[in-house]
Amino acid sequence: MYSGILKNNTLKFKKQIPLTLEEALSKLQYYCAYQERCEKEVVQKLKEYGIEGDMIWEIIELLKAENYLNQQRFAESFVRGKFNYKKWGRVKIRKFLKQKGVNPAEMAIGLAEIDETDYWLTLERLAIEKAQIVKGKDGFDKKQKVYRFLLQKGYEVFLVQEILKTIDFME
To answer: In angstroms, rounded to a whole number, what is the distance separating the alpha carbons of residues 35 and 141?
Structure first.
């Protein structure tokens, strides 16, 4: 297997020697210990290392057995991080968890990490902050911009509509 290396705007190829089971397991233990990972990320990393077929699933099972890899723990960590730091709403978080291959049961457990009061207060704070800085030709225009911003952040339509009723968009 070959992998490309970009150096000085030229693509050079080097032959990649597949790792042994022990070498791959050691690298993946470090990879998973450094940060929570989902199965999809681990499979991708193994393929980058030149590992294929049954050996991928053998390594994944070993990582699960040693508790390096845990989808539920990943979902909980992902939800906490995206909500607390990026202020994402449930819709966007759910979409990204689905892309990461997290099943609906683990997704629900992860989303349960979000406190309802914190969720509402975060949505309210985002709406107020955006309303103060957004420019528009009139109140309706400003309200639409805040509405689109909150939907883009992944908040539910009915909650966004509810919160926007409480904000005065007149100048």
So the answer is: 42
